[in-house]
Amino acid sequence: MTTRVLVPTGALGISFSSEAFARGIAAKPDIICVDGGSTDSGPFYLGTGTSKYSRAGTKEEWRQLMIARAQADVPLVIGTCGTCGSDASVDWMYSITLELAEELGQTLKVATLYSSQPAGRVKTALADSRISPLMPAPDMSPELLEHCENIVALAGAEQIGAALKTGADIVLAGRATDTAIVSALPLLRGDHAGAAWHGAKIAECGALCSTDPTTGVILLDIDEEGFTVEAMAADALCTPHSVSAHMLYENSDPFILYEPGGHLDVTGARYEALDARRTRVTGSEWVPSNRYTVKLEGAKVGGYQTTIMAILRDERYVAHAREWADKLHSFVTREIEKRMGLAPSDYDLEFRLIGVDAALGAMETKHSAPVEVGVLGIITAQDAETSSEIGKLINPYVLHYPLTRDEELPTFAFPHSPAQSERGALYEFCLNHVMVLEDPMEAFRLTVHKVGHA
After folding, report:
1. What's the pTM?
2. For residue 454, what pLDDT is reported?
3. Is 110 helix (H, G, I), strand (E, B) or coil?
4. Dihedral, 151, 157, 162, 168 alpha carbons, nearest 10
5. Residues 321-343: pLDDT tens digits?
6. How far is CA 313 from CA 54, 296, 319, 369, 378, in A?
7. For the chain, how big is the Rg over CA atoms in Å?
8. Strand locations in 242-356, DSSP E?
9. Contact 388, 336 (CB under 8 A)
10. For the CA atoms of 59, 45, 247, 222, what is the dihedral angle to 10 degrees?
């Protein structure tokens, strides 16, 4: 049996080609799968349980997918709802689906798969020695788990498959591996396991495995021996090079990919161009594990931040921007200790030079003379009041601090008033571990709803 999977984009919310998507629907897929998030954009979204993408943009794209799903009469699956895949993010996606079902006059069976983990469950697993760290991973303790704002477990093909078995028209999944949503149906239908997982890895980011990643849409055929992948945009090609290269994407080993329940081994994979547009892959192997593990991700508040920015345009100050920033840092550190009683270990203050080395710092290799330099001060403290107070204290010095003691006070430009901005809570990832499960569904919750137009 061949299972045809249509992947419209690498992530819901970043757009895709409507023409290419229409071509994919015309090819009569068995399922439409799309990813809804990742950890790429940092811990804020898991910490707050919110989406990176706008609700309006998400709803507009989801509308297209729901219309196409009804036209094709196949399941529609989204993994890692709302960027982070927390329970709140699944409910956020469910609310959008409810609205669209009413607007489109659709009656649907919707399965919601929840991935959030209560701290108590993870504590029990820790006490039972069912938690192992990945590399790198911070130390885990019951106290750390209590401070997590959100903890999620990454669902695999088994949990997505359980949702599909309900006969759902739409599956809204919490945090899941990118490959799980694509591999689940082919595995349920008995297709080659190695091909299902390898094809899912290649198609996970849509057209990123093609010669034109911006078009988004990929069609994947998985069968009893291998898989074939084709980009749906007219000018996009899936070549052996572009397809094989995707095994390197977000993966430390180009031949091994670990998933819940085992790992994919593509050491023996063979990539063959069927024509200019399509690549056929065979020889991939799925190696089951003797235990079932799911990855845990968690985020906690790591402090509170305030930022302040000034712009240097005087040629002398631009030329000596790093020297000025270092002197300013030393001066205000003394002032903070004298006036607020805070030692440098009580907070963090850095000045980044926008246009000089803000991204790479000391590793910067390109040095040219800019016309102006933005000086971004970033203050991090254990509470919002302290970070804000430090920002106010250093404000006049960021505005007027001289390069030398024997010159008139300079005045620099602030791009806005007030010069400082309160960024609020700063979140940090604090879990990178795997948890052993006796049953794949024991850490997940599945609910089925009948929704839509009566």
Report:
1. 0.92
2. 56
3. strand
4. 100
5. 999 999 999 999 999 999 999 99
6. 36, 48, 10, 12, 21
7. 26
8. 256-259, 262-265, 270-273, 278-282, 285-288, 292-312, 347-354
9. no
10. -40
